[in-house]
Amino acid sequence: MVTQKSPYPYWFVLPAAIVFTVLFLVPTFASFWFSLTRWDLFSTQFIGLENYAQFLREPFLIQGTINTLIFAFATSATKTVIGLLLAVLLTSGIWAQGFLRTVVFFPVLVSTIGIGITFAALMHPTNGVINVALASIGLPGPGWLTDPVLALYSVIIVDLWKGVGLATLIYIAGLATISQDYYEAARMDGATRTQMFFRVTVPLVRPATVTVVTLSLIGGLRSFDLIWAMTRGGPGFSSDVLASVIYKQYQAGFYGLSTAGNVILFALIGLIILPLTVWFNRREVDL
Amino acid sequence: MTSVVLKDIRKSFGSLEVIKAIDLEVEKGEFCVFVGPSGCGKSTLLRMISGLETSTSGQIVIDGEDVTHAEPSKRGIAMVFQSYALYPHLTVRENIGFGLSLAGRPKSEIATKVEKTAESLQLAHLLDRKPKALSGGQRQRVAIGRAIIRNPKVFLFDEPLSNLDAALRSQMRMELTDLHAKLGATMIYVTHDQVEAMTMANKIVVLNAGRIEQVGSPMELYNNPVSPFVAGFIGSPKMNLYEGEVAAAERCGTYGIRPEHLILSKSGGKWRGQVRHIERLGADTVVYLDHPELKQIVARAPGDFEVASGDEIYAMPMSGKEHRFG
């Protein structure tokens, strides 16, 4: 018989522990270390917090941080709202429900870079399909990606199109767990469809909302590939986010500096997500 | 005065007819129980009265008004669900006041009515709790409170006690009967448990495969069942029912005798059988006999009846207590 103190069971943990250590723990601690060094991939020189000081002195850091927050909160909020509305629509028994679910989810499966390149072409100020179509009905199309005021929001719209399918899928799963009895009880009480949505669906689908908000917010805060594929942070620095600022430093060979930027981004994500998670968990409902 | 009238009500799902031409009248203030095995259509019938399910044809009249096509909330009814359907994110107070709040009633009116209702159900001290912090019986009472506060003409109950344990079930049976007496409202109650039907109802409606088998008071159904189905469904342990030669000898299609109407004796009787199994219930002893022709005879004997497995004993039907069908 195996006693409680026997090391035997722990041997089974070992393979997973090794993989976790090599792939996750070592890189995490290594990045903290490299962020404190001047690093050219071959040699390191410890310079304390100099990288952090320099990163925080970046002229476009404030703009990048604001853009990151706008991008994350705008995409997260719209995915949450539109995802829920689409999920309600796609579980209401409408015509071709299964096909439409596939259509909504399809963009999630396509490569982000592919989507970025395609939409950059579609949004071209003169030759893009969108502006050509607008021109044909006599409307002057804006410079979707060339107008510094508009560029970030154009990328946000594409990110919403790409990501809303996943939010919808999570919400469809969440809606499936709500017992029909709640709706029938509300119907007996004379609830309108709008009242049922706000007073039954929204509160009871909360676990799905927590998942959608958390995932989309983290995804938005560290978003890079779509922005890079569509605008490279431009025009100028108007659509730069923290991740693209960091990438530019990597490109320029400032590895220690960019690693410090990543640690700061990590801390920012933690500062936003942790309190949010605590708040969400405090108000958890059991279905 | 009639409270609920069903006229030639039918319901089909595709080509499957689940409710077949039901006519029924429930009097004002009656406690009417729909009882039957799973799939007999009792819940569907209740849902049709509530308006949650539409009828394929026929007419539903509640309190003199044709409500066949009316919305559930316009029928003057309230329903207690099997799952209670209490909103987990709302407190007891908010759950009970949910309907009034939907209707946009003033807050002070809701508060007064909720407190009055809670008082009458001994829930006043639980008003600020969430449903998950309540016991099964308390949840049940909150669900009833949500129904009472609407002041309905008819209460509908869909197997409301099936999630409770046996002890609580018998307590809730009593509380529901008291509540019925206190409110004097018409109640329609669905169950598959014949004990609930017998103990609570003024009127029992036995349903089988979408049809009404028999309507009557508990004792009418017990004493004069019209079919072997009703005879077998009402009463526990169920009636001994025999077909074939035994029935032919009694000049009927099916011959029935209740376990409590068999006299067991070691000296003599109509049928001689071997004791296979004995259930000691305290006040009663249920004896299962093997009989070559009848296969099984179930008899209810006094609690202290002396018998052992393997004994050969006799069973004698009490005269006048036999049932002959068809």
In summary, what is this structure?
The complex is a heterodimer of chains A (287) and B (326). By secondary structure, chain A is mostly helical.
| Corresponding CATH architecture of the largest domain in chain B | 3-Layer(aba) Sandwich
- Cα radius of gyration of chain B in angstroms: 23 Å
Q: State the CATH architecture of chain A.
A: Orthogonal Bundle
Q: Which series of helices and strands of chain B comes N to C?
A: EEEHEEEHHHHEHEHEEHHEHEEEEEEE
On the 0 to 100 scale, the average pLDDT of chain B is 92
H/E element sequence of chain A: HEEHHHHHHHHHHHH
CATH C-level label of the largest domain in chain B: Alpha Beta
CATH class of chain A: Mainly Alpha
Under CATH, the topology of the largest domain in chain B is which?
A: Rossmann fold
Radius of gyration of chain A: 24 Å
Whole-number mean pLDDT of chain A = 89
Describe it for me?
The complex is a heterodimer of chains A (287) and B (326). Chain A is an all-alpha fold. Chain A has one domain (51-282): MetI-like (MetI-like fold, Orthogonal Bundle), CATH 1.10.3720. Chain A has helices at residues 14-34, 50-57, 61-90, 97-109, 112-122, 129-136, 151-176, 180-188, 193-204, 206-221, 225-230, 242-251, 255-282; strands at residues 37-39, 44-46. The longest helix of chain A has 30 residues, at 61-90. Chain B is of the alpha+beta class and 326 residues long. Chain B contains ten helices and 18 strands. Chain B starts with a strand and ends with a strand. The model of chain B has no long low-confidence stretch (mean pLDDT 92). The A-B interface holds A 179, 181-182, 184-191, 195, 199-200, 203-204, 206, 285-287 and B 50, 52, 71-74, 77-79, 81-83, 85, 87-89, 98-99, 102-103, 132, 146, 150.
